[in-house]
UniProtKB/TrEMBL annotation:
Protein name: GDP-mannose 4,6-dehydratase
InterPro entries, sorted: GDP_Man_deHydtase (IPR006368), NAD(P)-bd_dom (IPR016040), NAD(P)-bd_dom_sf (IPR036291)
EC number: 4.2.1.47
Keyword NADP in annotation: yes
Function per UniProt: Catalyzes the conversion of GDP-D-mannose to GDP-4-dehydro-6-deoxy-D-mannose.
Gene: gmd
Family, as annotated: Belongs to the NAD(P)-dependent epimerase/dehydratase family. GDP-mannose 4,6-dehydratase subfamily.
Principal EC category: lyase
Length: 334
């Protein structure tokens, strides 16, 4: 019988790549989707016709128990979250509820169903944002946390809770501490996609400038398609353990802008405008992964280097906009 996976956050970037990967690996894939008329569900269905949808919300404990009871999954991937860091200052309580308490509700749903005999492995989407103001570089599984946003704090709660359920109840529950990963399906609010869309719009004469915040922040950017393979590998391991996933290379936002505009054949300095209002109340200045444990124990390696990733996103956005696609309407997904 096919293994069955339940993915929260199915309408997001990672949900789409993970679903593709699991379907290609022979899984029956279910996605948890919220809302009575969520337009992102139809976008997801267009791309992933074989994914079955179960209604539920990370804010609603009963809906998660019902979803787990209905799907009877072998594996649950908890990717659902408020994931945009600036929004976590604007709606800190909601972020705590969805991104933090949502993990508790999902773990409880699994614990309740496991007590009736189910055996379910659990993956939690932890984040390099938990490291925040870093105490050492590169960051590995033993690096201490100093989160710098309500989002990072909520993720740290979910991370420790996942460890605690593993230790308290013997659950196969793991966290992937994933560094930034991007793709042509990345939300338009995140800096890589904002820059690739900005360069594409300027190239096509649809915009004349791109406004950005802190150009000096450094991130370890990889390709989302590579990172979902790591999520799956973590749940196939003999023992439940947490892993850092990243490329081990770091670049500034300035270098990202330069690479994107170069890929579009443009000089970035003519178009990029600094905007103080886009700076964050507290910034994470530098992130760089040490993914050695994942390489040695899981055999995981990233395959798409930074310049290739940026060029892929810029080319995709030039194609999308040339064909009349509207990324702000969430209508199209390459
Ligand atoms: P996205 O922002 O693209 O997707 C977030 C998903 O969460 C959407 O499907 C959204 O669904 C869902 N969601 C939001 N609120 C709820 C809710 N109340 N109940 C159920 N689902 C909800 O994120 P990514 O795909 O980029 O990231 C996936 C996960 O990995 C997130 O948890 C993120 O925090 C984490 N992460 C991401 C990294 C990255 O670089 N991409 C790095 C490290 C961690 P809806 O359509 O209903 O809004
Ligand atoms: P991040 O990603 O906060 O690292 O979280 P984001 O792309 O939003 O920001 C990266 C860096 O770019 C700087 N920046 C800007 N960012 C945005 N969004 N818009 C701008 O105009 C801009 N100008 C400069 C930011 O200050 C920041 O330093 C992502 C999310 O996917 C999280 O969910 C995930 O956990 C982490 O990555 C790992």
């Amino acid at each position: 019988m096919a293994r069955r996976a339940l993915i929260t956050g199915i309408t997001g970037q990672d949900g789409s790549y993970l679903a593709e990967h699991l379907l290609a690996s022979g899984y029956e894939v279910w996605g948890l989707a919220r809302g009575q008329a969520n337009p992102r569900v139809s976008r997801m269905r267009k791309l992933l016709a074989d994914v079955q949808v179960v209604r539920g919300d990370l804010l609603d404990q009963g809906s998660l128990i019902s979803a787990v009871e209905k799907v009877q999954p072998d594996e649950v991937y908890n990717l659902g979250a408020i994931s945009f860091v600036p929004m976590s200052w604007e709606q800190a309580e909601l972020t705590a509820e969805v991104t933090g308490m949502g993990v508790l509700r999902m773990l409880e749903a699994i614990r309740v169903c496991s007590s009736r005999g189910a055996s379910i492995r659990f993956y939690q989407a932890s984040s390099s944002e938990m490291f925040g103001q870093v105490s050492e570089t590169p960051q590995n599984e033993r690096t201490s946390f100093h989160p710098r946003s309500p989002y990072g704090v909520a993720k740290a709660y979910g991370h420790f809770l996942t460890q605690n359920y593993r230790e308290s109840y013997g659950m196969f529950a793991v966290s992937g501490i994933l560094f930034n990963h991007e793709s042509p399906r990345r939300g338009a609010e995140f800096v890589t996609r904002k820059v690739s869309l900005g360069a594409a719009r300027i190239k096509l004469g649809l915009a004349s400038e791109l406004r950005l915040g802190n150009l000096e922040a450094r991130r370890d950017w990889g390709f989302a398609g590579d990172y979902v393979r790591a999520m799956h590998l973590m749940l196939q391991a003999d023992t439940p353990e947490d892993y850092v996933i990243g490329t081990g290379r770091t670049h500034s936002v300035r270098e990202l802008v330069e690479a994107a505009f170069t890929a579009a054949g443009l000089d970035w300095e003519k178009y990029v405008v600094g905007d103080q209002s886009l700076h964050r109340p507290a910034e994470v200045d530098l992130l760089c992964a040490d993914p050695k444990k994942a390489r040695v124990q899981l055999g995981w390696e990233p395959t798409v280097p930074f310049e290739e990733l940026v060029a892929m996103m810029v080319e995709s956005d030039i194609r999308l906009l040339s064909n009349g696609g509207d990324p702000d309407q969430d209508s199209s997904w390459p």
